Amino acid sequence: FLPHLVASMVEVEESYIMIKPDGVQRGLVGEIISRFEKKGIKLKGLKLYQCPTELAQDNEHYKDLQSKSFFPNLIDYITSGPVVCMAWEGVGVVASARKLIGATNPLNAEPGTIRGDLAVQTGRNVVHGSDSPENGNREIALWFKEGEVVEWTPVQEPWLKE
Ligand code: IDP
Ligand code: MG
């Protein structure tokens, strides 16, 4: 395939991005949102939310991590203060958001990524991003209520897509 053909096959996806309590407490909300905004993806949902402990424990969100030794700490961490819940849409947004976020362990995250620039520990890695388009849809449905995700057309769209 020619690169432009491959690029045109990547689909419009949704990613659930969440600024974790450390990002909010450290005053990094604007900095983190601006990195996604500048990339040219579309913000469709945004709210500050205090996640209740019961919800975090039963929540489908971290279901695959329930058996891990760090799970209780993860629940304490994620419920320790408000988080910023976001829904972002764009072509290939799931993978591109993960690249902007960087590796799970901030010590392995490249400079220029959010975790590489702004964090030092896996247990305080400031931001979450969906790991597949399926999980993007699933997590947005989990964290947002009906009517909280907005469909709209940014005026800059012709300047982002040819
Ligand atoms: P990801 O956030 O990069 O997708 P996952 O493996 O899905 O990484 O883990 C989810 C979250 O669980 C991580 O972002 C981190 O906050 C926490 N976590 C993962 N592994 C560890 C660990 O070994 N110690 C403490 N926290 C961890
Ligand atoms: Mg993950």
TrEMBL record:
Domain of life: Eukaryota
Reactions the enzyme catalyzes: a ribonucleoside 5'-diphosphate + ATP = a ribonucleoside 5'-triphosphate + ADP; a 2'-deoxyribonucleoside 5'-diphosphate + ATP = a 2'-deoxyribonucleoside 5'-triphosphate + ADP
Keywords: ATP-binding, Kinase, Nucleotide-binding, Transferase
Name under which the protein is recorded: Nucleoside diphosphate kinase
Location of the Nucleoside diphosphate kinase-like domain: 12-151
Family from the record: Belongs to the NDK family.
Residues noted as binding ATP in the record, renumbered to the chain: K20, F70, R98, T104, R115, N125
GO molecular function, one term: nucleoside diphosphate kinase activity
GO biological process, one term: UTP biosynthetic process
The protein's role, per its UniProt record: Major role in the synthesis of nucleoside triphosphates other than ATP. The ATP gamma phosphate is transferred to the NDP beta phosphate via a ping-pong mechanism, using a phosphorylated active-site intermediate.
Swiss-Prot/TrEMBL cofactor(s): Mg(2+)
Name of the top EC class for this enzyme: transferase
